Amino acid sequence: MSNLTLIKPCPYCGREWGERVYCQSRGQVDGLPEGVVMATLARRLGGFLLDSLLSSLTLGIGWLIWCVIVWGRGQTPAKQLLGMRCVHLVHSNSASWGRMALREFLLKLVLMSLLTVATLGLATLVLSFQLMWTKNRQQLWDLIADTIVVHDPNKRLTVG
Ligand SMILES: [Zn+2]
To answer: CA-CA 20 to 30 A from 42: which of 5, 49, 84, 144?
Structure first.
């Protein structure tokens, strides 16, 4: 019976959470304020497209300056506009500026560029869709930086 203790019911809907950190029916994330849910695949895709658009519209520079400002809130420009935040799983709070720099710059830009060149694009093709099959919708850079991406429509998360 001991393994039953690993399964805890969701405090909001009573369903079991399983191995994931969020509720399967409402998306509520464990340990975060009520209403903070796992970002959907559609919102993540929207964020990717919006960041790409904003980056090209501002010739990269404006977007980069914007990034440096909002990284401290666990966000990118698109995440800010779409109400998403990166959360550090260990501390259950917005990812810090340093963690965002690791996630966005070192991993997403530098490491992925190297992997893309080394695999002739294959790594990008596969890893871009990794959030579709990892249990907490994590990309490679989330798995390494220990982050998840949440939707916080009511701005319940605080910084730091
Ligand atoms: Zn639930």
So the answer is: 144
Distance 12 CA to ligand 1 centre (A): 5
Helix (H) or strand (E) holding 140: helix 140-145
Query: For the segment 81-109, what is each residue's pLDDT rounded down to a tens digit?
Result: 999 999 999 888 999 999 999 999 999 99
The mean pLDDT of 53-80, rounded to a whole number, is: 96
What single-letter DSSP state applies at residue 20?
S
Ligand 1 center from residue 20 Cα (angstroms): 12
**Torsion angles phi and psi, residue 25, rounded to 5:** -95, -35
Q: What whole-number distance in Å separates Cα of residue 141 and Cα of residue 48? A: 14
Q: How far is the CA of 122 from the centre of ligand 1 (A)?
A: 37
**22 CA from centroid of ligand 1 (Å):** 8
Percent of the chain with pLDDT over 90: 79
- pLDDT, mean over the chain: 91
Question: What is the CA(39)–ligand 1 centre distance, in A?
Answer: 15
